[in-house]
Design brief:
- The chain is of the alpha+beta class.
- The chain folds into two domains: 106 residues, PAS domain (Beta-Lactamase), CATH 3.30.450; 84 residues.
- 60% of the residues lie in helices and 15% in strands.
- The protein has seven helices and five strands.
- The protein has a five-stranded antiparallel beta sheet.
- A hairpin with a 2-residue loop joins strand 1 and strand 2.
- Helix 1 packs across helix 2.
- It is rod-shaped.
- The two termini are 38 Å apart.
Length: 212
Amino acid sequence: MSETIDGGQPDLRTAYRHLAGYFPGGAVILHEGRVVLANEAFARRTGLALAAVEGQPLAGLAVSEDRERVARSCTEALSAAEGSVGFSMARTGGRMELTLIRIGQGPEAVLLGVAADGRIRDIESGVGEMCHSLSTQLMHVANAKDGIVEELETLRSLAAETDLARNTVWADIQSSLDTYCNGLDHAYRSITAAMRTFNALFASIAKGHPDI
């Protein structure tokens, strides 16, 4: 395939180069596990010049302990028409995650490898942390309100048996606590609404279609 791209079919090479340009996180075209074409973003992530990336096996970009698995993943993806592979890069030590998609059939088939966009991963991580934080705050609000309501009901029962029930200070305390509990109710509803929004965003990103 490398001879086909480099020699007999320049239009095919141009088409693949154009295809790779759609993936700013990095993209590569593989034939029999070897890089026949990559875009500049992919090369930058490997820490090598584009000319040094093209022509070598994808497994050669990985640390030694990952190479056998990378080669096997490419073979499996070619057979199944799709797959994925992740490895640590030998040059930079950074992580590369590729989604693999077969293009074509037979001996001329190639794999398009699309690198995960680190920016999306950062957003996904941030949204996940926000969901966790909101969930924690929601639990605190619910526990606070339940505790106050329980104690207030106990005090009201005790006050009803004494002159405290007619004390204006006690009435002010009850009113203030009722107002505070209403505020907690509002906070609970607001946090719940925010959680729904962030959970929906997290699910959207996880599916690979972030609405952002």
